[in-house]
Amino acid sequence: MKKTTLDDIIGLKYTKLGFFPEAKNKMIQLKAANIRLERKSQKLQAILDGISDVMVIMSLNFTVITVNRLFSEVFNCNQPEGKTCFEIFTNRTTPCPDCPVTQSLEDGQVCRQTRVYTIKDKKRQFEVSVSPMTDTHGKIFRFILLMRDVTREKAYQESYYYSTKMATVGLLAAGVAHEINNPLTSIHGFSEGLKRRLPRLKECLENNPGTEDLAEDFDEYIDIIITECNRCRDIVKNLLTFSPRKRIDFSRVDLADMVTDVIKLLHFRLKQEAGVTIELGIPADIPKIHGNAPEIKQVLLNIICNAIDAVEGQGRLSIYVEVKKKWLVLSVQDNGYGIAEQDIKRLFDPFFTTKPPGKGTGIGLSTCYNIIQQHQGRILVDSEPDKGSVFHICFPLEEKDTDE
Questions:
Q1: Per mean pLDDT, which range of 39-53, 58-72, 96-110, 224-238 is the poorest?
Q2: Burial class (CB in 10 A: 0-12, 13-18, 19+), 240
Q3: Residue 102, class by beta-carbon neighbours within 10 Å (0-12 exposed, 13-18 middle, 19+ buried)?
């Protein structure tokens, strides 16, 4: 079918009279201008898509006008145009109380904030920058919103700061531990000496009526002193794990065997905690890891004991091992009282504990963290109050033990 032209619409008579040559030229000019405008729009969209940050252009009423390609990839929203920013980012029906767009509108300046959004059930941090756009009269009519995902960067920063803090604590702990060790050794030694002399003391007191209980008191007090000295010795030993060590003997160790050994060590305590059940999910063919067996046992013992404490005599513990890419992950899960969100960030800080006074020193988990760091591993915690906790201990595998 022949394409309809302007001549067909106007008619041959009027076309020959030359009444509409100007309209025809205008149509040609408009068509060329439309092509140029479309090319500019495509070029502008290509520039927006080339920006490595999420970019959004918004109106004054928080409505999204246009976005770049990265926006849809990050927020999993294919057609955001026409929706409000608070509807997309936070699933709200009203603007956020501390909205950077509102602040930028009030100040007329660029507003920068760090905000946390939940994407696919995971919290991610973004550095948000809102810049107002003004017309020829200097009046704000739109906003440019730039969002940079800094979740991994923040995690690396926290890891660096924590490593620096732990190094400082290590130097301090080493000095304190050595200073405490000397008088502690003397106290322990003299207490043992007194204990050896107790039989002679009993003989001397037998001939003095009314002094029979003194020997028993001395025996009890000396036993308490020796017990507390041994407790302090263990604390000092844990403190020394913070100090830099020149050499640690590593070998190929079987994680399943170590879990079995730790469960055997806890046999007596588990008999007392009759309401606690332990479920094991450890495959028989898990690869071996490169590490120091006594130190890994210390980590497992601490994590499992904490899980037993968390269920308070009535609950379930699950210990299972999985291979995830280049990591062997041992997880200890409990259905206890859980950990508050504000405490999780401080959980591995030296001398921080969520246990009541007299129940914990706050050294156990920080020692575990230090040991796993020396094994080039990681400890991850996932917990909610009243819903239990799970500790993931990740050990790196040798390349020949696993494939990507």
A1: 39-53
A2: middle
A3: middle
Please report the pLDDT score of residue 403 as a whole number.
42
> What is the number of other CB atoms lying within 10 angstroms of the CB of residue 381?
15
Rounded to whole angstroms, the Cα distance separating 230 from 187 reads 11
Can you say whether the dihedral through the CA atoms of 254, 302, 249, 242 is positive or negative?
positive
Q: What is the reported pTM?
A: 0.51
CA angle (9, 11, 15) in 5-degree steps: 110
**Interval 307-321: pLDDT, tens:** 888 888 888 899 999
- Domains belonging to the chain, first-starting first, are 12-153 (3.30.450.20), 155-240 (1.10.287), 251-401 (3.30.565.10)
- Under the phi-then-psi rule, with left for phi > 0, alpha for psi from -120 to 50, and beta for the rest, what region is 210? left
**Long-range contacts, stretch 47-51, CB < 8 angstroms, 24+ apart:** 51/146
Q: How far apart are the two ends of the chain, measured CA to CA in Å? A: 60
The 10 Å CB-count burial string (b at 16+, else e) for 331-365 is bbbbbbbbbeeebbeebbbbeebbeeeeebbbbbb
